[in-house]
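Job type: complex structure
Entries:
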Amino acid sequence: MIPTPPSHVALDLPPWLVENLERRSPVVHNDNEQQMAFVLEIAAENSRQGGGPFAAAVYGSGGELVSLGVNRVVPDSTPIAHAEIMAIAAAGQALGTWDVRSRGEFTLVSSTEPCAMCMGAVPWAGVRSLVIGARDEDARAVGFDEGNKPADWREHLAAVGITVTRDLLRDEAAKILLDYASSGAPIYNGSTA
Amino acid sequence: MIPTPPSHVALDLPPWLVENLERRSPVVHNDNEQQMAFVLEIAAENSRQGGGPFAAAVYGSGGELVSLGVNRVVPDSTPIAHAEIMAIAAAGQALGTWDVRSRGEFTLVSSTEPCAMCMGAVPWAGVRSLVIGARDEDARAVGFDEGNKPADWREHLAAVGITVTRDLLRDEAAKILLDYASSGAPIYNGSTA
């Protein structure tokens, strides 16, 4: 028995996060450090709630939270449900355009350096800046596979008008990855899956 | 007025495609060429129906169609709604696992060589093979931005156990891109958006 292919894929925030956002909305964080602290709080809670230890957010130039994503790969059976993919998709739908760049200067804040897929998505997102907490090597150190990224990814983003800030609250961000790995939760990746 | 960030993102197949699949289901194509011919038929129809000229499908080892994706970037205001991302997400949800590799040997059939984002997603998809119609340069020739892919992407996929077949029905696949561009439909990409 071969089922009909799915006509609908849902990338949903988990209920605890929806409640959290409804309670706190509107969320405004005026600088990148406040934004990263919020994203890290969500990443840590997501890993306690059964998701992956990753979160990402799109902020507008007034510091308003436009969209948020968390890693839902394992609980939602969705290999592409990385935090950045969810945040970028939600930003487009929130703003009502694929061309986010036409609506202002947006920033993608990511708890860990995006994997190869998510890094490839950054230019499609229409953001003008990317702010990163933990480095690629912090994720690899606990066993996550970051994929095959071009060595020149920072130069390429600069060439298409996207500025990159790294290492913002890196120690705090790396600790979330380490705590997740220490808890014995699944470390999934492409090469050993 | 700052709205609450979206709690739900939908990656949906368009109604014409849902009807098409319901009419034809179950879809079984026993070899890669039949699979590619089907994917190209869907890509061409998607571009006539207001989507991008791209489609992708995940097939099981018995030739059964597990999932299908089409480019919905513009009509759905979703920068990451590329055909491969939709097909990979739907395959995981159809099979009920992020770890598609544990369920058998699956193939991702893509009408055009995946962009940098989608190429990064291929190892996360859990497929054992990737079958490609048009080349990267066919997409770039009509103005699409394929992003910043690592030069060694084929070697990297081979190293993680994924075989690659290129140029299957390439002329037919490239013609779909050319017809789309000739129609004056929007050519969207990251660097000029």
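Summary: Chain A has a mean pLDDT of 94. The first helix of chain A runs from residue 15 to 24.
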